[in-house]
Amino acid sequence: CHHEGRCGRWVGRVGEGPGEFTAIADAHVVDGRLVALDRVTRAWSNFNLAGEFLGRRPYGHQAGAFVPVGGGRVVVVNRDAAPEADDAPLHLAHIDSGVPSLHFGSKDAWEYGWKERPHAGDVRGSVTGRPGTLWWGAAGGPRLQEWSVDDELLRVIEGELPWFPEVRRPVDLTREPPPTLLRFLALDTTEHLWMITRTADPDWREVELETGQQGLRVPAGKQDNYFDTRLDIFDLEEKRHIGRYVWDAAGARLFNLGGEPAVSVVEYAEDTGRQVVIYRLDFRFPEGNVVRGSARAPTGHNEHERLDDTPGRDRATGRRHSAGRGRAARRL
Fold this sequence. Notes:
This protein is an all-beta fold. The protein contains 1 helix and 26 strands.
């Protein structure tokens, strides 16, 4: 699509043959090629930027979102139960061969009990990061790790956040709000960690859930009434919680916009109907929003940080599109 929103070209079609897709898990431009991973066929499809099909490569493992990390390499973020993957959440592959050359990211993670917790199989990776690195975490809690693509654990972050309590048991959705879950991560060039979570809408009780094949679910068209999306940004060097922004929408996403994080949100306008709006956030630094905690270096060369937010400070207000005091969002 063009910058102004017009669709310029369709790439691929429905099917399982060359240049066709059944269910796209993710797609990115990787070293001048458009690369897509199919969730059903577990195969990569490569196109040039004119939309011409270049070839298909087998991936052979459970498909998921992936992150380009340079040199024609990508990291697929998905907990894989295959014996050779050893339950690892990160899988390094080169788009020319397609198959993973390294399964990594699980070292020390399961010592925290991540593997047994609800939503442990739902893992999320950072859309931007330092060259050759990425962050990952399980959806059910604010515990994160940064890894290099050389299979080296670099940093661990754990802590307690009042708006993001760790999910330790299944939630009874007939009586309780939906749990807060990690959805997206990013690290910008100033060492600010961006974290997007999906939270309960203040009016979640007004949505009547329906029964599906896998249990209770939100009816079509009611997602934005049941969920909100919250963005929090932390300064990792100063261990400050810089601020937050809340959208009255379920589907806000972090993505890589020219090497820096940005947020895309589907919004509704009277003149155009549904439209994708891109936000860059300009966060001020209000006094008092300091993240309490300490840093220590455990055995080895890893850096271990604890990020705790002071109770009563910087909690979500429940207001729609609220950036909070001293913060601003710039809409592109």
